[in-house]
Amino acid sequence: MSDAERLTRDDVAHVARLALLQLSDAELDEFTGQLAAVLDHAADVDALDLAEVAPTAHPYPLANVWRDDVVGPVLDRDEVLAEAPQAESGRFRVPAILGEEP
Predict the structure, then answer these.
(1) What is the residue range of 19's domain?
(2) What is the pTM of this model?
(3) According to the model, what pLDDT value does residue 5 have?
(4) Is the confidence at residue 44, as pLDDT, over 80?
């Protein structure tokens, strides 16, 4: 007996009540068939022999795809701070957020 044959309209109505959903009779009939199809598909997947399939988090074997972290030319701190609207003690000064005081 498949899950679709075991699933009843009352089961779907019970789940709908648990989820605080108000479903019409037409919706209960429609969703009973849809949920049964989902459960049948899950049973098909569960029946697959996956003993020789390695667990994976991604379908493609990926390696680190980022570039090497290489030091390059940098801006002079004093020149950058000279362009800032406000600077203090060698840092950018920004407005306080969320009512925080310094």
Answers:
(1) 9-47
(2) 0.49
(3) 66
(4) yes
